[in-house]
Amino acid sequence: MRLNSVEVTAGLFIVAIGGFFALGALDYQIGSAHRMGPGYYPLAVGGLTMMIGLVILGQSFFLKRETRPASWRPFFFISLAIGIFGLTVERLGLMPAAILVVLTSAVGSEAGTFRGTIVLALGVALCSWLIFGLGLGLPLPAIAGL
After folding, report:
1. Which of 89, 95, 130, 136 has the fewest CB atoms within 10 Å, i.e. is most exposed?
2. pLDDT tens-digit profile of 55-64?
3. Helices marked H in the chain — which ranges?
4. Interior CA angle at 26 toward 40 and 33, to 5°?
């Protein structure tokens, strides 16, 4: 039996992340489903994350999938996009920061078109402003200086 090493690694990593959150939740009062304590939700999310990791790990034993070499380009540009958002959201505003996130993330993808990326960036910017600015009332300007 040949294991899919990528899925084994991913499954173990996800189980470890879930275990980290579940163990951290044990430092807080758990409570019950009726009266949830501050540790209830992190424990539940950690447990569910561990179960997802176990499913991925189990599939690596039984399902044979074609493996591809890992591509670092998407990982790099998505990580960069998150950093760019954090650095620009207060200086430029929510909508320009959201546009920069989509454009930076798109550089890491081999799929998609320029026109589709622009439409997606504008749509994400508009939706983020509608949800977080208007809907939730977060104190982030749509565009800084306006």
Report:
1. 136
2. 999 888 877 7
3. 5-25, 40-62, 72-92, 94-107, 114-128
4. 20
Q: How many Å is the Cα radius of gyration of the chain?
A: 20
In order, the DSSP letters of 84-96 are: HHHHHHHHH-HHH
The letter for the amino acid at 121 is: A
Q: Which residue has the tokens 């189990």?
A: 58
Confidence (pTM): 0.61
59 within 8 A of 3, measured Cβ to Cβ:
no
Write the CA distances from 73 to 31, 48, 56, 115, integer angstroms: 43, 29, 24, 21
Question: Which pLDDT tens digit goes with each residue over 30-53?
Answer: 988 889 899 999 999 999 999 999
